[in-house]
Amino acid sequence: MTWSETTILVLIMLALVAWLLWVSASRLDRLHRKVVASRLALDSQLVRRSAAAVDLAASGALDPVSSVLVAEAAHESSVAEDSGGHQLVAAVPDLADLVALTRQDAADHRAPTRKGVSRALGTGFSDDRAQAESILSATLRTVLEDPTEVEELYRSPDGDALLEALAAAWYRVQLARRFHNEAVAQAQRVRSKAVVRAVRLAGHAVMPETVELDDAWPTALRRPGATGGRGASTGTLSA
Q1: Under DSSP, is residue 210 helix (H, G, I), strand (E, B) or coil?
Q2: Is 189 within the bounds of a domain?
Q3: What does the angle CA 234 – CA 165 – CA 223 come to, to the nearest 5 degrees?
Q4: Could you give the CA distance from residue 161 to residue 141 in angstroms, rounded to a whole number?
Q5: Which residues contact 183 (CB under 8 A, 6 or more apart)?
């Protein structure tokens, strides 16, 4: 093999390696964006569930003690809400359609960058936020644990609509958390590969983490679309 043939062969091999690395980096970037988008969706659905719980507590349909407990748990959930969603939107503006933005937020949109996605991956759930959301879940399960009382609540004025709204939001929380954790698992698998680690394709982006909180369903609460409920929800993740 001549020197020129060897040179061409080496260049072809280098080009192939560079192409493979580019493909891997592009895939990893897409996975990182998927993690950020699913995190935004989860944050949005948790906020909706908290709002539905507040509406239920303020409706007068619950007994006074239950109303106070649910209202306090929902308030703590709102107070503990971290600024992750706003940071994610600021870092990755093209994902802003997954959350409710103010006009000022919309006016500040910029072109998304890979560096912005990397920063956004570090804005995970705080321990306080996860604990507050878990407490809200446990409180609602306690309030809605008696099937007889819950059925009476469904038959009360506006009770059916309030519980349907809560059920729809809760169901979407479960879906959003599952999708988010699946996206995180995919990103973690790719980042664990030897080539990705050796070439540092992830750059300085932090390793994404799953969101762990208690979102177990109340036994007596009807699932969206269950027989006997009105205004069934399809369980989509629209924000």
Answers
A1: coil
A2: yes
A3: 55
A4: 18
A5: 31, 34, 35, 38, 208
Domain presence at residue 43 = yes
Element (DSSP H or E) covering residue 20: helix 3-58
Range of the domain at 149: 3-199
- Indicate whether 163 belongs to any domain: yes
> Amino acid letter at 136?
L
CA 159 – CA 107 distance, rounded (Å)? 39
In a domain, 234, yes or no: no
Give a three-class secondary structure readout of 169-207: HHHHHHHHHHHHHHHHHHHHHHHCCHHHHHHCCCCCCCC
For residue 180, give the nearest of 75, 84, 76, 113 by alpha carbon: 84
Question: How many helices (H) and strands (E) in the chain?
Answer: 9, 0
Backbone dihedral angles phi then psi of residue 63, each to the nearest 5 degrees:
-70, 160
Domain count, the chain: 1
Q: Give 111-170 pLDDT, tens digit per residue.
A: 445 555 555 555 556 778 899 999 999 999 999 999 999 999 999 888 899 999 999 999
Question: What does the angle CA 25 – CA 28 – CA 31 come to, to the nearest 5 degrees?
Answer: 155
pTM of the model: 0.73
